[in-house]
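Field notebook, page 226. I keep forgetting to write these up properly, so this time I am using the form the group agreed on. The chain and the ligand, LGQLAAA5, are recorded exactly as supplied. Prediction of the bound pose follows.
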Amino acid sequence: MGIEIKICGLKTASTLEAALEAGADLVGFVHFPKSPRHLTVAELPALSARVRGRALKVALTVDADDATLAALVAALDPDILQLHGKESPERVSAIRARFGRPVMKALPIARREDLSAIPAYAAVADRLLFDAKPAPDDALPGGNGRPFDWRLLAGLDVSRPAMLSGGLDADNVAEALSLARVDGVDVSSGVEDAPGVKSPDKIFAFIAAARRAAAMKGAAPSTASS
Ligand SMILES: O=C(O)c1ccccc1N[C@@H]1O[C@H](COP(=O)(O)O)[C@@H](O)[C@H]1O
């Protein structure tokens, strides 16, 4: 079974290179001033040029307005817009139509009831991303290194490609993939030495562990018919 791997919150040319060399399928750039991974619009073109088709570029925003999204689209030319705020299904649909880019909507998950939002977003987004719901005292809506109960996604059956994020790292990604039925994984904090400081070694270790786990999953005998 192949999976997609996204390394998010890349800020420097050297860590972006590490993610690309390690085989990341998607690379994420955060534009959210409260984040330690925030990049200004002016910083994006140079990073964008380094990607050159080696991975999909993802622009991560949180409840951004149209002017901000327009500036990001012009500076990064993203393949995907990741919406990580409280964007309604109507807003997701409007962004997708206005900017003509595939949209990945992040959904915060803590309990089974949180899955009830899936149908409305699956109807308008190209992809879904299941992330841990932030705690009330978390400063960020994501990127907190917080996992959730991956068993909630065990029987997941959505009509869109789905990624898992929240507190993943090289040590737990195999367990996460063994429990959640998803098409990919997304990591930020788990490949850092400090908030906003990516570690090339951890990026390589994470991607190797995720690929190994996906291969094991593909090789495991199916229990579906028993
Ligand atoms: O990374 C950030 O700073 C960030 C800020 C605002 C919203 C989302 C953010 N990151 C995304 O959060 C998840 C989980 O990250 P982590 O591995 O638990 O740190 C991931 O999708 C990041 O793309």
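OBSERVATIONS:
- Residues 8-9, 28, 30, 32, 35, 37, 60, 62, 84, 129, 131, 140-146, 165-168, 186-190 surround LGQLAAA5 (CB under 6 Å).
- Confidence is low (pLDDT under 50) at residues 222-226.
FOLLOW-UP: compare against the apo run.
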